[in-house]
Each structure stands twice: as C-alpha cells, then as structure tokens.
Amino acid sequence: MSVLQLLLYVLFLTVLLAWSATGHVAVRADLTHVDSARGFTKRDLLRRMAARTRARVDKRWSPPRPRPGGGGNDTGVTASVSREGDNLYSEYLIHLSIGTPQPQRVALTLDTGSDLIWTQCGCRSCFHQPFPALDASASSTLRNYSCFDPLCAWGGLALSGCTVNDNQCFYVHSNGDNSGFTSGKISEDTFTFQANGKAVAVMPSLRFGCGMYNTGNFKSNESGVAGFGRGPMSLPSQLKALKFSYCFTSIVESGNSPVFLGSFGNLDAQATGPLQSTRFARGPSEGPNSSLYYLSLKGVTVGNRRLPFDASTFALRADGSGGTVIDSSTAITTFPRAVFRTLREEFVSQVSLSVANVSTGDADSMLCFSISPDQNVTAVPKLILHLEGADWELPRESYVLRVDGGDDDDGLCVVINSARDSGMTTVIGNFQQQNMHMAYDLGSNKLSFVPARCDKL
Fold first, then answer.
1. How far is residue 211's CA from residue 182's CA, in Å, rounded to a whole number?
2. Which of 138, 243, 402, 452 has the fewest CB atoms found within 10 Å of its own CB?
3. H or E element: which one contains 121?
4. Are 417 and 335 spatial neighbours (Cβ–Cβ below 8 Å)?
5. CA 235 → CA 44, 105, 108, 437, distances in Å?
C-alpha cells in the first residue's frame, strides 16, 4: 500500500468513525472565548462585553428602521459582521481547518443568531487576522458552486447572483443597518474539526462563504462566522445534526470550551446541579428571524420578589417584534427597558451597599455597587428566569462580577443589560450561559441545560 493510499484510508476511517449508528454526525470541537488569555483585567473584560452587547443589540435586535429617504423598512439579515472600534460581536470561537491535503486554520464565531458559515478566503479586500486567510487555490477538494445550482437561488442566502466571468455563485451578506458586509463565492470543501489540539473528525463537502470582500472594523482574532441557526446553510443543518450542545467556560478562565454536534456528549459529566428542559417557542415562519431559537419566558424573580411582568411582556408579537431569544453571540442578557429598570431597582433595594458613581444618573446603565478592596460580600439576591417547565436559577458567577477599582473602590456589578431604545426583544446572552451545558434538541424541539464544570468536560 502506497503512502497516498494509506492517507486516503485513514481519512476514510476518520470520516466513518465520526458518524453514529443513526447516520448522523457526532463531532466534538474546541471553543475559546475571544478575550481568553489576552491579559485583560475583569474591568476590561466587562467593558468589552458591554460594548459588544450594545453593538449587537443595536444592530441585530433593534426594530427595522426606515431607509434614508423613505422607501420601506430595512429588514436586515442575520449575519453579524460589522465592528466599530471595540464594539466586537465575536464571543466564543470554534477552531477547525478547511481544505486538503494540508488543512488550513480558521477561527469562526459560534453564532446561533445566523446561518451562513463564512471565512476570509481568496482576499481582495479583507480585515486583518492574526493568521493567514484561507487560500482556496491550495486545496485540492474545494469546489465553487455554479449560480445555476438550486443552492444559489434557494439555499437560504440573503442575496446571491452570478459572477460575470465564470457564472459562479456570488453572495452578499449584510448587517441590517448596512454598516458592514461579507461577500464572495459559495464554495464547499472538507472541514477538519479539532479538540484538545488534535484532529478528531473530517467532514467532506460542507458549504461555506469564501469571503473575498469583508468590510467593518474587525479588531479580534477570528476569521469569520459559523452560523448555528435553523437555516439550511448552518453548520448543524449541513451535518444533519438534530442535536448540538456547548458548555462555555467563564470569561475569566483561559481554558477551552467544548461544542458537540450530533450529540450532547454526557450531560451528567461534571454536572453541578439538576438537569432542566424547556420547549422552544414558535418563532416567525419567515424572514431573518425565522432561524432563531425562541424560548417562552414567563417571568423573572430577584431575591424574594417576582417582577410585575407576565409572559406577554416576553412573548413574540404578531408583527414579529419582541419575544425571548437565546443567543450565543450576545454577551450579556438584555431586557426591555421597563423590565431592566424594575430589576435594577430590586437589586438596589435588596443589596445593602452603596451604588457606585458610575451607575448613578442613568437608570439604564449597568448596576454596580461600591465595595472596598478587602470587603467580602456574600449576600447577593438570587436571579431566576422562569421558563416554560423550568425555573433557571442562575449561579452567582453568571450574573455578578467583581471588578478591580484600581485606586478607587472595587465594583460589584450585576451583569445585565438594558435594551434602551432597541425594542422589546429579550436576549439571553452567553455570560448567563457560562458554566452551563446548553443542549439543543431540534428533533424534540427543546432546550436542556445543566450547571457543569465546562473546563473539565
């Protein structure tokens, strides 16, 4: 047997072993937080999270705005590509490689709020990334799609058409406010998934956007986005994975987080609390929000008081506004203004600490309390999200963060965000999901979650 034949045999076995007995893929891959091991203080991390959340909420979750000069509303699309300064949308990055015979590294934001997989590739105009962009010409297995292929017209792309010279499928994926976009050719190639620094599964013929033109002020360490939404171009959909899960390590840790596709791994492994489940709520049947993961949020409790808002406050409205979405690429859970202000007032009334100066004067600002550097605060009101069939009591570290004050007092911050003028959608962010094993069962239409030591999985 020649060396080439041996390599092909090993490749075949790797693909074969990645499939379960039911014919669905079963893959584990590594995630890292975008700010992991970059030397930021907790105050820096909180500031960056807040900036990313503000940008994401303003651009992704705001109600449609009229186009300049009239002419209807801009409904937007689900890609999250524009950056402004430090207002980054990147959160947890999935690490994998694309192409053969030498797989090339990519780092993609895991985004349950979008569908398209895309990475910088064959660059004509690209943002800076800390490793080489994908070289399409170096892969022997890369194939571009014809614009006459049904995928180009009916594959869930927001905007697509033909290239002039070779009739290949060209896509454009844009933010709702048109502040940035990615565009290029729709391609397919072999993906190699990595866990613990090693290749663990090889999957051929996965479709992705070879982003040749990518605008926006990217200042991070990602090369693109891996859509995990419900649409046909998302990574779970292409792998025919009716199950996937992730377990985010804390942002103050530097370890890897696991993501599982086609299985949940072991939900009992490293669990530190009970397993609960809630059904996904019905979302819009069409449009850019049809691939999102909606939940039925019935209410919120702070300490010993349930806030005076019923399920209608958090429900999807007939016009498509509102609703409660769980989103991997929004950092901080965001409530409509009225809910946030009431929640903030409850924490102020139940915590026997002085409100920090940075939190005074603006009822929509994040709430921080002032504490001395040597002060040990043990009593913090519990925070519970009442979902259909489950009461999610958040661990303290998933909504409270102590930050160093430098020359001033330290801050004890309640890490919850106000939507301000950005509409009525409630978004459950990834800070609240950290050290929770979040399991998406699309076949049974339910979300399960269990507190876990994610760094030990």
1. 6
2. 138
3. strand 117-125
4. yes
5. 32, 17, 11, 19
Beta bridge partners of 325: 294, 427
Residue 17 one-letter amino acid: L
- Paired tokens of 87: 């207002």
Q: Kindly state the tokens that stand for 96.
A: 């994998």
**What pLDDT, on the 0 to 100 scale, is given for residue 16?**
39
At 32, which amino acid appears?
T
Kind of pairing between the strands at 324-326 and 426-428? parallel
Q: Quickly list DSSP for 345-405.
A: HHHHHHS-SEEPGGGSS-TTSPEEEEE-TT--------EEEEETTEEEE--GGGTEEEE--
Q: Can you tell me the distance from the alpha carbon of 181 to that of 186, in angstroms, rounded to the nearest whole number?
A: 15
Q: Token pair for residue 69?
A: 């000069």
CA-nearest of 184, 181, 203 to 192 is 203
C-alpha angle 327/79/321, rounded to 5°?
60
- Which residues are catalytic, by number? 111, 327
Q: Give the burial class of 104: count Cβ atoms within 10 A of its Cβ; 0-12 exposed, 13-18 middle, 19 or more buried.
A: buried
Read off the pLDDT band of 436 (50, 70, 90). very high
Lowest mean pLDDT among 107-121, 128-142, 354-368: 354-368
Looking at the predicted structure, is the pLDDT value of residue 265 above 70? yes
Tell me the C-alpha distance between 29 and 198, whole Å: 9
Q: Report pTM.
A: 0.88
Query: How buried is 447 (Cβ within 10 angstroms: 0-12 exposed, 13-18 middle, 19+ buried)?
Result: buried
DSSP 8-state secondary structure symbol assigned to residue 182: E
- The CA-based diameter of the chain, rounded to the nearest angstrom, is 75
Question: Which residue, 56, 95, 85, is CA-closest to 224?
Answer: 95
Gap between the Cα atoms of 439 and 448, Å rounded: 5
11 vs 243, residue with greater confidence: 243
Give the number of other CB atoms < 10 A from CB of residue 24: 17
Q: How many CA atoms lie within 13 A of 43 on its CB side?
A: 10
Q: Please tell me whether the peptide bond between 101 and the residue prior to it is cis, using omega within 30 degrees of 0.
A: yes
Closest CA to 430 of 346, 328, 361: 328
